[in-house]
Write a sequence for this structure.
């Protein structure tokens, strides 16, 4: 294997210009506009789809009359629950159907779908569908939802199938707890006890490309082009709901215009496939921005966190108790693990002998929450890290020193009994603070806040095929999905390094479930660690084939063959060589240069739950972390005390995400994660009416950060060199930068206004209100 | 539906007399239609290619800014930046570079949003609006242009052809500031403009303050001169102006802000606008827009 061309210094604030160039194979298409996204596709005879949405956030569905719509000119198919198999689906609990059947439960529930020759005709027909409802009482208050006698979002929840270990009751869609030692006794003995409530509103993934789906049937098989992050999960959903075998459903993803987790899960592929089947014509669905805001699983869950921590006077944490309520919305999607993940974040990367944390994902009549980039982490981290500064303040300790004292390091045990290997958290704290500390004094109304965060890596199944064709040029056929992070694009680098070729020698065939083996999709920061493993294995097998051919050609031992610079040579004798193109040409007439790779993923650590010292109820397998990632963000802000407007000036971000394979792409992920974090921290608020309907489902009133708001960002990668789960010791990466930013911003604001803000986002008005002593801490 | 492009004023006036709606940049009209505010009108006449509406003419006893002059030009034009600086401040804050390149002054004021950015500056600088129809031309004080949110007092058939401003004087200064939550693509949460004339000693001779996004229309704050005239601007004057602005505002609560927060912050904006206007009148260079130069709003 050829070593990477240069080894840039990543352990000091990175100068992007000094990083090795990364030619993204999808770059020219995307920047010149020649790339095709789902909405750009047109097929002969294609129809346009429009949906009929619920008119109430909670109502019994009495009747759906499609007769007028069906008779309108140009309308080719109209579907309701009666027209598709009666199947309940999703991941954690099978609580939803393609079309609402007996009830609607939030403002984005789909009641019917129409396909017509033009979009205008489809919309007109959708408007002509007559639906009779009987409104039901709504559930929007997380605490009231848990009270006896609360109306239930799913009165028949007990009859639904659920995944193993999902603990349910009433409006609780999933419950988890982490208990270690005897938190209540330890709390009673603590020298200082600090409590706080932290309330986070929902926010949105907000990819710039709204969702699109095109479906076409041919010969009893359906091809679906979809802007999904998870083509195999989308395929599984279509197979389940339309009762089809996997080999009759092909999901292809054209270029994807961002996802941020909002395009995870199975959603509208089956609706469009069913419309196309009924009409006998291809059908295209393209969402409006409003629909994009209403779609299920696009929403980062609102959260109420009540935290209590007991301390010794020396600053060590002795016990923590917490109660976390998460707004799951009307359906649970992939949220079954959210409570356990939220519990981990509220515990934080700290040593503690005693803790008791309970977390509940609560059904409400709002948009379903789903895996948005690092689900539960930014809110959980914001709560616990705001609390951590309050702990330090209670002891009159420096908050950075307090963190260094209590944060886990090599050999330490965290909240769930996992003993960590060599990790870089302590170094991250030092590096982030150093990166942002100015030479002189801070300006007026300026301060620096610090927060630490963590996030797991997710080993999982994944496959790829690598081949060299007879001119020595390569193809990587992969199930992996590129959602903009560059991780699929980085696969070329991995294959090239195995084969002694250049990344540009490879084309990537990707995002097609019929062409490539399974991959979990662009979710859970898993692409490079899992599909990278597959590509390295496949390319390694092709390398072995090349070496055999070269050994015969050069009359040398296979073990002495080195692949480098487009040729095979004998170790120590570079002149004795043959080009890979020549070898490939020879192979082209015989045994082809092709191999697949997958390999078993690394194991998750077992937790020591023996003897009841540690107990996790509702265990969803996200407490013991493989390849744990750590980070520290230090944020320099200026607060306008008269208005509460906060401006982020500088951020130092230090990350242990294991070995960094592609520094430039990694840097982009950190910067992007930080911008998303600033939006969640300051401007991205979701407004609802009392019934749970979204009021600001659009980019006019849902305020993302803009390029003009970008602060200076200095990034440092700490590579401790152990504990990675991917190629070369890599861990996941892309979610980790979206954990600690909001927390660090609150700690900075607190230093200026003298009190933390207890509601997220910390809008200007909330900061101003907090500074006036009026804090909302109100429910999301 | 019909769409015509006028290249002369007469063509435009004839089309409007026939019931066509003028469209300049379309950045309110078309965007609003897409958002379901109001359907696109049946008949449209584009006015953005009428050369005489795109002129800025200074000199003599009036400065004339054509109705289709866009924000990108307003924020950089030497006449505007030098003498009507509050208007340049406002134009520089509009949307994004793309919005500023298509959005026009006429469109901004005729659209009549209470959150429009150019309105308050025009009020404090004593602007007149020129309205033309096939029947003739009239001018009216800009304060009389608006009667309700999203509405104006022009008659059917009238086109706004220009905004007229009094000629610049000595020791004048003006500024517009707004509260914003981010630094681009924002709408004024609240805004305030101030214009002052000082005497040679730096005492205030004349001062006006107007407010955006705190009432059904842009409003002028009454009694400003009583609070600050006759002396250099001091802390008492600043505080009194802030109080007057807050108490004369009648803001609503909506998703962007509560009424209480708007009432408070519009006082802060009024104070800051007045302060910047006085500093400019005293000869200090504060770059356009004040929001960026002095870190106001999303500093
Ligand atoms: C992304 C975005 C950001 C924005 N940001 C801001 C902002 O920060 N501040 C702000 O104030 N505005 C903002 N706007 C609103 C808008 O851009 C401005 O109001 C702009 O000045 C409107 O000008 P226009 O030429 O595009 O108007 P148009 O949309 O063409 O017209 C608006 C209305 O005025 C009428 N009209 C236009 N010209 C005349 C005329 N000469 N005589 C009579 N009637 C006329 C039209 O019939 C229509 O009713 C924003 C808009 C967008 C889309």
């Amino acid at each position: 294997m050829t070593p990477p061309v240069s080894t840039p210094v990543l352990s000091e604030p990175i100068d992007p210009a000094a990083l090795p160039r990364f030619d993204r194979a999808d770059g020219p298409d995307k920047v010149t506009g020649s790339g095709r996204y789902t909405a750009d596709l047109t097929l002969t005879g294609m129809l346009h789809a429009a949906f009929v949405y619920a008119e109430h956030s909670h109502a019994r569905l009495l009747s759906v009359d499609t007769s007028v719509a069906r008779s309108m000119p140009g309308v080719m198919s109209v579907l309701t629950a009666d027209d598709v198999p009666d199947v309940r689906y999703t991941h954690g609990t099978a609580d939803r159907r393609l079309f609402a059947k007996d009830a609607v439960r939030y403002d984005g529930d789909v009641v019917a779908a129409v396909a017509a020759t033009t979009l205008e005709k489809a919309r007109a027909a959708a408007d002509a569908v007559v639906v009779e409802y009987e409104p039901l009482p709504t559930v929007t208050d997380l605490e009231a939802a848990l009270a006896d006698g609360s109306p239930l979002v799913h009165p028949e929840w007990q009859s639904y199938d659920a995944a193993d270990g999902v603990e349910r009751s009433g409006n609780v869609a999933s419950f988890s707890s982490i208990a270690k030692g005897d938190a209540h006794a330890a709390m009673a003995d603590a020298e200082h006890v600090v409590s706080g409530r932290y309330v986070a509103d929902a926010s949105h993934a907000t990819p710039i490309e709204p969702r699109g789906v095109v479906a076409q049937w041919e010969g009893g098989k359906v091809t679906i082009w979809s802007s999904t992050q998870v083509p195999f999960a989308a395929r599984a959903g279509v197979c389940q709901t339309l009762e089809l075998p996997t080999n009759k459903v092909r999901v292809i993803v054209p270029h994807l215009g961002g996802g941020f987790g909002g395009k995870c899960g199975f959603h509208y592929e089956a609706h469009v496939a069913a419309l196309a089947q009924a009409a006998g014509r291809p059908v295209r669905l393209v969402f409006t921005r409003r629909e994009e805001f209403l779609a299920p699983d696009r929403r980062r869950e609102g959260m109420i966190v009540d935290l209590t921590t007991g301390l010794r006077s020396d600053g060590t944490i002795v016990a923590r108790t917490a109660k976390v309520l998460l707004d799951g919305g009307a359906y649970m999607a992939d949220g079954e693990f959210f409570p356990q993940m939220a519990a981990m974040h509220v515990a934080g990367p700290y040593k503690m002998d005693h803790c008791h944390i309970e977390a509940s994902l609560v059904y409400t009549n709002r948009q379903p929450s789903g895996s948005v980039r690092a689900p539960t982490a930014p809110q959980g981290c914001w709560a616990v890290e705001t609390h951590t500064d309050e702990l330090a303040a209670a002891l009159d300790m420096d908050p950075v020193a307090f963190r260094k004292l209590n944060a886990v390091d090599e050999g330490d045990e965290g909240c769930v009994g996992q003993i960590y290997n060599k990790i870089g958290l302590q170094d991250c704290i030092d590096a982030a603070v150093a990166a942002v500390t100015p030479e002189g004094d801070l300006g007026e109304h300026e301060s620096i806040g610090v927060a630490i965060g963590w996030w797991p890596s997710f080993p999982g199944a994944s496959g790829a095929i690598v081949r060299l064709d007879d001119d020595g040029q390569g193809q990587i056929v992969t199930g992996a999905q590129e959602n903009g992070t560059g991780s699929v694009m980085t696969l070329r680098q991995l294959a090239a390094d195995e084969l002694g070729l250049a990344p540009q020698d490879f084309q990537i065939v990707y995002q097609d479930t019929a062409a490539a083996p399974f991959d979990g999709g662009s979710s859970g920061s898993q692409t490079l660690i899992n599909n990278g493993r597959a590509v390295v294995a496949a390319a390694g097998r092709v390398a072995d084939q090349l070496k055999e051919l070269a050994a015969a050609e050069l009359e040398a031992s296979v073990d002495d063959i080195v692949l480098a610079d487009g040729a095979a040579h004998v170790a120590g004798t570079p002149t004795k060589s043959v080009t890979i193109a020549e070898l490939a040409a020879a192979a082209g007439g015989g045994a082809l240069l092709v191999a697949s790779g997958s390999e078993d993923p690394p194991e998750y650590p077992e937790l020591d739950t023996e003897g009841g010292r540690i107990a996790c109820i509702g265990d969803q397998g996200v407490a013991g972390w493989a390849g744990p990632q750590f980070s520290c963000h230090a944020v320099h802000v200026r607060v306008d005390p008269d208005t509460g407007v906060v401006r982020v000036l500088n951020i130092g971000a230090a990350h242990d995400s294991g070995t960094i394979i592609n520094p430039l792409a990694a840097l982009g992920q950190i910067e992007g994660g930080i911008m998303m974090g600033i939006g969640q921290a300051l401007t991205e608020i979701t407004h609802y009416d009392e019934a749970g309907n979204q009021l600001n489902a659009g980019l006019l009133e849902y305020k993302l950060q803009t390029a003009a708001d970008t602060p200076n960002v200095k990034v440092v990668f700490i590579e401790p060199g152990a504990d990675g789960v991917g190629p070369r010791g890599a861990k996941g990466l892309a979610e980790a930068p979206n954990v600690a930013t909001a927390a660090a911003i609150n700690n900075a604001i607190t230093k200026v206004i003298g009190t933390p803000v207890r509601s997220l986002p910390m809008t200007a008005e909330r900061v101003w209100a907090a500074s006036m002593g009026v804090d909302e801490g109100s429910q999301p | 539906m019909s769409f015509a492009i006028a290249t002369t004023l007469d063509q435009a006036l004839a089309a409007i007399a026939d019931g066509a709606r003028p469209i300049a940049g379309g950045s309110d009209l078309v965007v609003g239609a897409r958002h379901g505010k109001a359907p696109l009108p049946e008949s449209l006449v584009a006015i953005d290619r009428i050369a005489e509406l795109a002129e800025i003419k200074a000199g003599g006893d009036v400065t004339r800014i054509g109705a289709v002059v866009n924000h990108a030009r307003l924020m950089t034009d030497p006449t505007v930046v030098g003498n009507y600086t509050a208007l340049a401040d406002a134009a520089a804050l509009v949307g994004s570079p793309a919005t500023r390149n298509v959005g026009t002054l006429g469109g901004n004021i005729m659209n009549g949003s209470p959150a429009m950015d150019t309105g308050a500056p025009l009020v404090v600088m004593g602007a007149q609006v020129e309205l033309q129809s096939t029947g003739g031309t009239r001018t009216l004080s800009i304060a009389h242009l608006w009667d309700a949110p999203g509405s104006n007092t022009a008659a059917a058939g009238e086109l706004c052809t220009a905004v007229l401003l009094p000629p610049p004087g000595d020791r004048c200064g003006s500024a517009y500031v707004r509260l914003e939550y981010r630094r681009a693509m924002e709408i004024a949460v609240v805004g305030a403009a101030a214009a002052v004339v000082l005497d040679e000693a730096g005492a205030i001779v004349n001062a006006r303050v107007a407010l955006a996004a705190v009432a059904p229309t842009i409003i002028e704050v009454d009694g400003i001169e009583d609070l600050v005239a006759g002396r250099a601007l001091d802390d008492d004057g600043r505080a009194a102006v802030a109080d007057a602005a807050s108490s004369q505002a009648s803001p609503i609560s909506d998703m962007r802000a509560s009424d209480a927060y708007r009432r408070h912050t519009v006082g802060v904006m009024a104070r800051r606008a007045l302060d910047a206007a006085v500093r400019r009148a005293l000869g200090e260079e504060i770059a356009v827009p004040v929001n960026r130069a002095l870190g106001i709003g999303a500093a």
